[in-house]
Write a structure and sequence with these properties.
The chain is of the alpha/beta class. It has a single domain (2-225), classed as P-loop containing nucleotide triphosphate hydrolases (Rossmann fold). The protein has eleven helices and seven strands. A seven-stranded mixed β-sheet has the order 3-4-2-5-1-6-7, sandwiched between helices.
Length: 232
């Protein structure tokens, strides 16, 4: 099962959702691979992957290394890391035939129970590659007008991918994150998101993710522990 976590709006907890889902599946005994498809490399940093000295998803999608060479084994789950080099990939392969299929082709050579793909906050070639390769999409969104309003545009992109690249793709559900149940505005937006879900035939998860400073503190500790920022 390949699951893509996607929303073109930034700051909706895509990376946190990806990490938590991958870690949770690993705790259940599943064999899990996470793919950091965001040039910011936050998921890679989150688990302490080496995205500086070792090859990353950029070299993988450029067909410069095999997938076995790029997978790193961490204490949490296996990961294919990313770094800022990935930001230039689209321009480098824009004229190549089958550019939307790059990720799908390399994933044919691995065997995992679950593959979780963290995508960038954009609907460009990287996200199209994720949609083409995956079985299901989870859409994290905050209860804010800007992140929620982008869901219909995301849906249009998924429909086009389904038509031209991946007939099997479907939306697993919409996950509301950074939710404050005491906020009237958040409650109103939750109702709007439910209507959007009905429009695109995507269920809203009963569980919503509250705002939590604990997650931010945990991510900071992990970042410092891996010595990514020893000199500022």
């Amino acid at each position: 099962m390949i699951i893509t976590i996607s929303n073109q709006k930034g700051g909706v907890a895509k990376t946190t959702t990806s990490a938590a889902l991958a870690a949770g599946l690993k705790l259940k005994g599943c064999n899990v691979l996470a793919i950091d498809l965001d040039p910011q490399g936050n998921l890679s940093d989150n688990v302490g992957a080496d995205n500086r000295e070792k090859p990353t998803v950029y070299e993988l999608l450029k067909n410069q290394v095999s997938i076995q060479e790029v997978i790193q084994h961490t204490n949490q789950f296996d990961i294919i890391p990313s770094n800022i080099m990935l930001a230039g990939l689209e321009k480098e392969i824009i004229s190549d035939l089958g550019k939307e299929q790059r990720l799908k082709e390399v994933l044919a050579n691995v065997n995992y129970d679950y593959i979780i793909i963290d995508t960038p906050p954009a609907l460009g070639l990287l996200t199209i590659n994720a949609f083409t390769a995956c079985d299901e999409v989870i859409i994290p969104t905050t209860a804010g007008i800007f992140s929620a309003s982008g869901i219909t545009q995301l849906y249009d992109t998924i429909r086009n991918v389904k038509k031209y690249c991946n007939d099997n793709i479907k939306i697993n559900g919409i996950l509301i994150t950074k939710f404050n149940p005491r906020s009237n505005n958040n409650q109103d937006m939750k109702n709007l998101i439910k209507k959007l879900g009905e429009y695109i035939n995507a269920p809203i998860y009963k569980t919503f993710i509250r705002n939590s400073v604990v997650i931010e503190e945990s991510q900071t500790r992990m970042y410092l522990k891996t010595a990514k920022c020893t000199k500022i």
